[in-house]
Every structure is written in C-alpha cells, then in structure tokens.
C-alpha cells in the first residue's frame, strides 16, 4: 500500500502546477493559441510577457548597453528592446565585423533599411509597414534561436519596470496584421490560383491553367483571366478562374477577360 501511495504522490503536485498555469490568463492564452495552431501568435504573446515567464530577466539602460561593444565585456545588441549576447558571432559583430555597428545599442530600423549611418541606427520603427514588422519579428526569432537572450532595454519598447510600452504594442499589432494579410492572400490564391506563364521569342507570352497551376491542387481547371485585387489599380495578375463558382460571381468586378483568349479556353497566347 505504501508503495502504491508513493507512486501517486506526484499527482497532486502536477495538478497544482497545471491549475496555477491554466488559471493564469497569459499562459491560458498562449496554450489556446498553440492548441489552435497559431504558433506565431503564441510566440508573440510569449515575447510580450517574457518578464512574467522569466522573472530574473535583466533590465539594461541605454548607457549600460554601450559597454558591450568589445570582446572584453562581450558583444550585445538590442532588437525591439530585447537584448542578445552575440559574442559567439564575433566574426560578424566584433570590431572588424560587418555588423559591429549594431552592438551596444538598439538599431532595429537598420535591420530593414540597411542604413548604417548615425541616423539609420535607430530604434524608431514607427514607419515600418506590416510586412516589414513581420520581417523584424522573424529576426527576433532568429536571435532567440542562435544567440543568448540577456534581457530588455529600458526605453522605447519597455519601461523602467520592464513592462511593454505602447510602442511595443503598436509593433506587435503590425506583426499580427501581417499574419492576417498572409492568411487572406493564401485564401485568395486558393480561390483564384495563379496561371502558368511562359514566354517564347517566336510565340510571345502563353498563359494556361491546369488542376495544379499556382501549386494549388483542385478538381477544376479554370480559364485565365486578369485579376485586379483593387479594381481602381491597374496592377493585375493572371488567375485561373472557375466561372461557375460563387467566389467568381461575388468578385466578378475584379476580373477582366484577356482579349486574346477564347471564351472557355484554358490556354491562350497574349500579345507582347
């Protein structure tokens, strides 16, 4: 009996841990996002609340961070207020490295612009597009994977207590919007897959549709048409369209037929 009880002594401990975690709203939301397959959303929520998850995280002042620009003290850089030890990459971040300008500061904007001048080495990312913010967030993930996370930089993205600022919220909202735009773009391409396109000197441009064109497998062929995401904009792409589908009927104003294409043909040659 004693042996049996001993085997189950861990159960109330695990139950207490699970109860504590589940009833913490942040952990609960992270688990929900993971359960729903939203890995990016879970990661961003983790980033935003890593001070709670890791209470021993160090807070750096801008002046303190400037000390970490050499191999004696170490090579540190900050990206969207997150500080990383990149000393192991000294060939890139050391005094003779191409990215030494990033060390000892938060120069987030330069990751996007490539501008290493004094004005370009700034943490002001307010002008970033949603797509650029996502690219920046991908860089943060890269640094978490490859280098050592050391703490947070007090200033633009974290306050004196290490709490996220309004600027960080604005940045993360752009990242979230970028993911939504990607999802919307993927859905659009599933409804209206890109055409196959080929150009030959003697024949010009050929566009055609198959059941796998655009890399999207489906049970219909479609006909090539010009697709205008924004009807007021002249930019368009060739899309394979199922003219009997509700999706086409609801978005008919966004399509124009190619003059060179026969009414129901899945292939045509365009004038160049």
Automatic annotation (TrEMBL):
Residues of the Cytochrome b5 heme-binding domain: 60-154
SUPFAM superfamilies: Cytochrome b5-like heme/steroid binding domain
Residue intervals passing through the bilayer: 7-23
Coiled coil: none
Keywords annotated in UniProt: Membrane, Transmembrane, Transmembrane helix
A Pfam family assignment: Cyt-b5
InterPro entries, alphabetized: Cyt_B5-like_heme/steroid-bd (IPR001199), Cyt_B5-like_heme/steroid_sf (IPR036400), MAPR/NEUFC/NENF-like (IPR050577)
rRNA-binding among keywords: no
Keyword Transcription annotated: no
Gene Ontology CC entries for this record: endomembrane system; membrane
PANTHER family linked: MEMBRANE-ASSOCIATED PROGESTERONE RECEPTOR COMPONENT-RELATED, NEUFERRICIN
Family, per entry: Belongs to the cytochrome b5 family. MAPR subfamily.
Name assigned to this protein: Cytochrome b5 heme-binding domain-containing protein
Taxon lineage: Eukaryota, Metazoa, Ecdysozoa, Arthropoda, Hexapoda
